[in-house]
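pinned: reference chain
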Amino acid sequence: MHWQGKNLEVEVLFSAAGLATQVLVRAGSIYLLFDTGDGTLRDLLTRNIPPQKLTAVFITHGHADHMAGLYALLGYLRAEDHKGRFWVCYPRGACEVEEVLAAFQHCHNSTMPYELVCRPLDDGETVNFGEVQVQAKKVLHWHSIKGQPLAPAPALGYRLTFQNEVFAITGDTAFFPGLADLIKDADIALIEATLDDDAPLEQRCLIHLTQQKAQMLARLAKNALFIHSAQPHS
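pinned: its structure tokens
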């Protein structure tokens, strides 16, 4: 799936619930990746997008289908002698992301050709890359096994602004009123639409959006794409 605005370009490299999600955003000369599920490196290279072009990745939460490709991406940049800074931004307290970053640094800190910037984010915090501003927005997503909720997961959506255009991505989230602020008036919103409308109540309340709720939220944006469904999008 692909969307082209006046100043922003968005490409869903791959997205399927439980497998992987990775979304590339081009804002002028800035390339940002939202989530790094399994296969991220493959998906970039098969589209002839050098990973060295990336300035940063923004991870929505620590579940494997959203960050399992992070180590491979970091390792590729090291092996290719990447220079400069590379940012990894993620929800504060996402232990899965923190442990991957710590393991990579433990193994390779003494031979790193680039500076790895690890940036945990809280609700409302912003990160700027020139004219590109990315704001973190807390969302509602629980850890679960086979759809059974276990405990709240640190999880964020993101709202990017560049030259008067806005991109928003929900990440994984159940419905709650604050999602309107994340999505409202976005030029393009990527909204997870994981559940059928008759999914169990605990899943609808704590884990994911239903297709009906996703469609309702999409009406708040100027354009919308639905991702993270049971069928892969690429």
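why pinned: Helices lie at 40-46, 64-67, 70-79, 95-108, 179-183, 201-206, 211-218. The mean pLDDT is 96.
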